[in-house]
Specification:
Elements: H1 5-9, E1 18-19, E2 22-23, E3 25-26, H2 37-49, H3 60-80, E4 87-90, H4 93-103, E5 113-117, H5 126-135, E6 138-142, H6 155-158, E7 163-169, H7 181-191, E8 194-198, H8 210-213, E9 217-221, E10 232-236, H9 238-243, E11 254-257, E12 262-264, H10 278-293, H11 296-315, E13 320-323, E14 334-339, H12 344-353, E15 356-357, E16 359-361, H13 366-371, E17 377-381, H14 388-404
Parallel strand pairs: 3-15, 5-6, 5-7, 7-8, 8-9
Antiparallel strand pairs: 1-2, 4-10, 9-10, 11-12, 13-14, 14-17, 16-17
Helix pairs in contact: 2-10, 3-10, 4-5, 11-14, 12-14
The chain binds pyridoxal-5'-phosphate.
Length: 406
Amino acid sequence: MSFDVGAVRGQFPILSEIIDGKPVHYLDNGASAQTPNAVLDAVRTYETTGRANVLRGVHRLAERATDAYENARVEVATFLGVAPMEIVFTGGCTAAINLVAYSYGSLLKPGDRILLSELEHHSNIVPWQLLRSRAGIEIDMIPVTVDGRIDLDKLPGLLTPRTKLISLAHVSNVTGALIDVGAVVAAAKSVGARVMLDGAQKAPHGPIDLPSLGVDFYVFAGHKAYGPNGIGVLWAKAELLDAMPPFMGGGSMIGRVTFAETTWAPAPRRFEAGTPPIGPAIGLGAACKWMRALDWTGAHAHEMTMVQHLMDGLQKIDGARIFGPAGLQNRYPVVSFMLDGVHPHDVAQTLDSFGVAVRAGHHCAQPLMDRFDLDGTTRVSMAPYNSRGDIDALLTGVRHAAKTLR
Ligand SMILES: Cc1ncc(COP(=O)(O)O)c(C=O)c1O
């Protein structure tokens, strides 16, 4: 049976809203995706039938809340093919990377090196720069090819015995390029380095079998993966989490506290100080369950058909240039483009007047923009619920912008 985009759309109430007389053509999923009823219902059930704090209470509501919170951890772990005790809930993807940079980073010595790429999101650059200031580590950078992929041919030449971690986007939030994880892991092994993947743009496109990828750390954000805001995930191998000191101190993350000394709880609690984002975690658990039930073979084929339709349409518009891979191989449905002579913000504003939501600007990837001397791009980022109608509305808007703004 072919992929039924209408049935998927029907599960997302916001997609049938009419706002200022216009339908919602939501193509800004790379910034934040929409949430299906399954997620809204799970959060509402917690708030209306089980709201309490977790871990500390002995009353029935506290037990319900704790069960729901820990079940969410199981759902996330199942989505990633790993053990629940290796899942740390964080405030977001940025928070997860900062946790690793602070905690794993505290195990590094001056002169140790972290390898990033030129296309990383700022949240996979700045935490390492903070660590550099704090701890005297060095940062190396893998350049990007002209079609917006991390140039893995350059990887071996950048590795040294001091390289301790390679941290890269699994999928680029600007070009949609998917990285060859096997090549990165093999190269990392040759010098004994760890690998972290920033899965912010990959996790929203279906379950991930982390054990088969062979990486050491994985992070993603709930709000981009059909879940609530304010929740993110860090996965790390148990042996690594056990070796890492806490990031933040407070309630719930301790074994025993005296004024002389404090001992830590085992992972993951050691990394979840204070009251965690309980409702958002429960919502993310529901989002992972929802994603596991989706036909991703059909969804991915549908998304790629939409990408092709978009690229074909853009190629027919005078002055429109795509930035990123030209084909469908090893790419996800994020497409950046420029319209010669028109600022990306003006393109996006015109599109908004057609009911089309996209992102414009540097996409928190200024080093990548600098490399290609770009002010920014207009970015179309899709989810399985995006239809041909969404892409057609976008193309109509871009044609209008090309005609009226140049
Ligand atoms: C590749 C990538 N990494 C990290 C982030 C940061 O995610 P958050 O702002 O949810 O922490 C984003 C957000 O756009 C992203 O696209």
